[in-house]
Amino acid sequence: MNLQEQPAGGWPYAPGGGDGATFQKLLLDHALLRGARPAFREKKRGIWHTTSWSDLADEASALAAGLAARGLKRGASIAFVADNRPRLYATMSAAHMLGAVAVPLHQDAAPEELAAAIRRVGVTHVFAEDQEQVDKLLQVLPGCPALTTIVYDDDRGMRHYRQPELVSYDTLLRQGRELAAGRREILLAEAAQGQPDDPAFLFFTSGTTGPAKGVVLTHAALIKRARAAATAEGLGEADVTMAYLPPGWIGQNLFSYVQPMVVGYCVCCPESSETMLADMREIGPTYLLAPPRVLEALLTQVTLRIEDAGAFNRSLYRLCMGAGRRARASGAGSAGDRVLTLFGEPLIYGPLRDVLGMSRIRVAYAAGDAADPDLVGFFRALGVNLKPLYGSTETGFFVATQREGDFRHGTVGRAVEGVEIALSPEREVLVRSAGLFREYHDDAEATERSRAGDGWVRTGDAGHLDEDGHLRIVDRLEHVGALADGTPFAPRLIENKLRVSPYIREAAVFGDGREATCALIDIDPVAVGRWADKRSVTYTGHADLASRDEVYGLVADCIAQVNAGLAADPLLAGAQVRRFIVLPAELSADEGLLTRTGKLKRSAAAQRFAPAVQALYAGEGQTPDGLKIRDAKTFAPTVAPRRAGRSA
Fold first, then answer.
1. What is the pLDDT of residues 219-260, one digit of tens each?
2. What is the pLDDT of residue 14?
3. Smallest Cα–Cα separation from 246: which of 502, 610, 595?
4. Are 462 and 608 contained in the same domain?
5. What is the rounded CA–CA span in Å between residue 175 and residue 187?
6. From the CB of residue 231, how many other CB atoms can be counted at a distance below 10 Å?
7. Burial of 122 from C-beta contacts in 10 A (0-12 / 13-18 / 19+)
8. How far, CA to CA in Å, does 9 sit from each of 12, 34, 35?
């Protein structure tokens, strides 16, 4: 069914988007205006395969016919449990053609987590990637009475599956093509029925401060936010991005579905997480989204490579990176620094960008959590135009970012076009725009609590606005407190600084209402393992490695570096880490200590490690279960520290 040609009776809506745009209308626009251009590229068995906009629209239309025949209706919900693949987004487009609501879920979620989301939303159809996901869904199927259809993509290992709810993607596509033959105008008319204020997505929040909520966002809200961001960055159809993050996160969907529908750029899907960097080097994306944890992992790789280099190369690296930070990151570099960056471009910066697959990046965003300024500064020193991006699921993601030529170190920048930012008397960040969420699914009380009146939405984040409108995010409002002596305490700011170290994977910091700041440290086993091997430190596993005195010394040095930086921060100078414990095992989402997007669940960590935290403050040498407790080196403040109640 060819959608590139305009129907004899004309389009049943005005092409070109505008205020009446929906995702299904934008897709049909692309098929008409740039049908031969690539919409997706996917690497399979070492070969890149291209799906054009025309191909995508045709496939989505056939899938829509097949899904309609299997009962998917306007207003119904279809869940997605899969990795980033063109077929996932084609099915998502098909759902929007029928007026259904897309509900992306995390593919690493346990069966009971999937079942809870499916029951809560009343999901009737699911797109699942492979046997692993199908097995989880079949396990919970008896408890999900509304679920009637499971579409699976990869059929490996499923030859003997006979459940009536199952249908392969290829079968659905073939049946859909047969049903859609000769019904092109009917499908176009169905797509035209969709309205901008119809719900398009339901995303679940990360759940860092409580149970996850289902956030309902309309076509108009997402399209307007994506359009404003695309205009600000000058995005066009020639841009290329990578889809490698969990599709259950709104950020990935904004970059791999919403913005491409607005702009028409190409989305590339790597073959696997193991080949991600190699695939990035082949594609050379111009536009990239990266959570701080991904950037921290890349920084760790660079640090380890430099450690393996010779003494001269290490010295040259440190010299050039210092100049790059001053000239490119902070804007305070001297003429000598600028000359040194020119000298370092072919020797240091360029080769490192090539290794990281960032040689063609025009714009990159650090989003999903607060990024430490030193982490952002590292990539900007390399010549990567990395900017912090602030937003949340409820606010349509694009709320504030840095402007070209107006980079302010330590802030997330100013409000994006069409967004207003204000602070409540409690210094909670409030947002007002056309991109706000419609409601929390089936939770009118929580929806009402999120409203601040006159169109403002509460974000739950504490922040500061400077005189030029630059926003600095401190922490979640409920986590901001003070030490016993009145020193302001913002644990996330300290945790972010600790995680910049290549040897620290995660940190949980405590101190509110107490006499000092203490930390639980989760080491990076790969980086620390390499460090230990080079120094002939023997160990038998993660727990043994974490208990070694040499590793405690390494972590103590990392904390000392962070404390030295905190000593120069008027907000955090008095909140330096005094004592710490190295945990014997990694914090994980499966144990409920991290969200599925990798954020720390601080309340869960405080409950789980309550005896260890108590021992930290009791002045003991070890915890009840034998974990070592050590003091960290602290420094005299180089600025006058603030006390709670003083103006920020």
1. 999 999 999 999 999 999 999 999 999 999 999 999 999 999
2. 42
3. 595
4. no
5. 15
6. 14
7. middle
8. 8, 21, 20
* 461 lies in the same domain as 402: yes
Task: Please report the pLDDT score of residue 19 as a whole number.
Answer: 62
Calpha distance 149→387 (Å, rounded)? 42
How crowded is the C-beta side of 141, counted as CA atoms within 13 Å? 16
Residue 32's domain is classified under what CATH number?
3.40.50.12780
Q: Please state, in angstroms and rounded to a whole number, the distance separating the CA atoms of residues 509 and 520.
A: 6
Query: Which of these, 275, 308, 321, lies nearest to 527 by C-alpha position?
Result: 308
What sign does the CA torsion over 234, 227, 371, 572 have?
Answer: positive
pTM value is 0.91
Domain-ending residue, one of 429, 460, 478: 478
Cα gap 213→364, rounded to integer Å = 28
How, if at all, do strands 266-269 and 38-44 pair?
A: parallel
Same domain, 197 and 340: no
494's tokens:
């300290």
Tokens linked to 440: 């929390």
pLDDT < 70 positions in the chain? 1-19, 182-184, 209, 331, 640-648
Domain containing residue 468:
392-478
pLDDT tens track for 473-500: 999 999 999 999 999 999 999 999 999 9
**Measured between alpha carbons, how far is 527 from 525 in angstroms, rounded to an integer?**
6
Tell which residue, 526, 384, 373, 393, has the closest CA to residue 450: 393
Tokens of 385: 């135009």
Phi/psi for 200 (5° steps) reads: -110, -40
Contact yes or no for 486/643 (Cβ under 8 A): yes
**How far apart (Å, rounded) are the C-alpha atoms in residues 503 and 526?**
8
Name 589's Cβ contacts closer than 8 Å, sequence gap at least 6. Answer: 108, 595, 596, 598
Predicted confidence at residue 118, as pLDDT, reads 97
Q: Quick one: the chain helix, strand, coil %, rounded to 5?
A: 40, 20, 40
Read off the tokens for 386. Answer: 């990395």
Distance CA 362, CA 386 (A): 9
Rounded distance, CA 156 to CA 254, Å?
30
The sheet that has 199-204: what strands, in order across it? Answer: 166-168, 149-152, 125-128, 77-81, 101-104, 199-204, 214-218, 439-440
Per-residue buried b or exposed e for 311-348, using 16+ beta carbons within 10 Å of the residue's own CB: eeeeebbeebbebbbbbbbbeebeeebeebbeebbeeb
Do 472 and 522 lie in a common domain? no
> Could you tell me whether strands 101-104 and 386-390 are parallel, antiparallel, or unpaired per DSSP bridges?
unpaired
3-class secondary structure, 44: strand
> Both 529 and 437 in a single domain?
no
Element (DSSP H or E) covering residue 279:
helix 276-283
Please tell me the predicted confidence (pLDDT) of residue 406: 85
Is residue 514 in a domain? yes
Angle at alpha carbon of residue 206, lines to 492 and 390, rounded to 5°? 60
What pLDDT sits at residue 329?
A: 77
